[in-house]
Structures are given as structure tokens and as C-alpha cells.
Amino acid sequence: MSEEVHNSRNREFFRLYGQCQNSIFSILFMLVHNEADAEDLLQDTAATMLERFDQYEQGTNFRAWAMTIARNKALNFLKRNSRVRPLLNSDIYERIAELEIREDEQFSERASALQKCFNKLEATDRNILQMRYQQDYSMKKISELLGRSKTGIYHTMARIHSLLYRCVKARMSGGHS
Known about the structure:
By secondary structure, this protein is mainly alpha-helical. Helices cover 79% and strands 0% of the residues. It is built from seven helices and no strands. The protein has helices spanning 3-32, 35-51, 62-80, 90-120, 123-134, 139-146, 150-172. The protein is elongated.
């Protein structure tokens, strides 16, 4: 593999890893119940993922792949330390991890649907949402900046929220609104 391709793959790994690092830590912490152990496992998980990144199929769910590796690391850790830390039935840990992974995947799907719906909004509606949620402007400040009444901005926000809700709901149910 050329150095350029290798560097490109590493950049891609770290981009994808950065998007789900907090989720990986959450599942590790949830399983081992100790922050220091979860942090150590996070580092071990990241190292394993980087080593095996050539096995990851681009275009598939990176988060699910990462969470599976993290779950396995945590379960192995719990088995190795079962004398120091009594282990609940290992099936319970497996089930917890599966539920966390499924919930995380559903969140990712909702976030993706929301982004697609946001992109479909009119530019002025996107601008209002960005002022409110990214720039943290108050409704009063938005109304002043846009030269509109505060009540009008509230009505506009309600309309936008309704549009986004219906669009995300349609996307999540298989329709593409």
C-alpha cells in the first residue's frame, strides 16, 4: 500500500472513530462500571480497530463494527477479572451490549434522517434554526436580526419543527418525505 493510500485510510479511520468515540466509551463504561477501566478499554479498542481497519468494509455501518469490537473487549475484560469483580451472568452483559448497540444504531439513523430533512428546508428556515441552535440566539435576538416579531419567529419555529418531525418520521418508517 502506498504511503498516500495509507495516510488516506488513517484519516478516514480517525474521522469515523471520532464520530463514535463517545458511544464506544459509553458502552464500555456501562459494561465495566469503572471509568479508568473504560478509558483503558477505549484505548485498547481503538488500537484493535486501527489494526483491523483493512478488514472493515467501507460503506457499511462503522459504528456497529466499532461497538462490536468494544463489546467483545469489555466482555473479555470482565471474564479475565471475574475473581476480582464477580461477573453477573454473562448473558446479561451480552444482552445489555446488544441493546446499547441497537439503540445507538437507531440514534444514528434518526440523526441521518434529521440531517437530510434539515437540508431539504428552505434556506431562511435553515438560517433560523442555525441561529437558534448553533449560535444559541434567543428568540428575541432572532426577531431583531430578521426584523420580524417575536411571535412570528415562534410560529415559524413551530412550523419548522413540525416539518422536521413529519419528515424524520416518514424517513424512519421507510417513506422519503
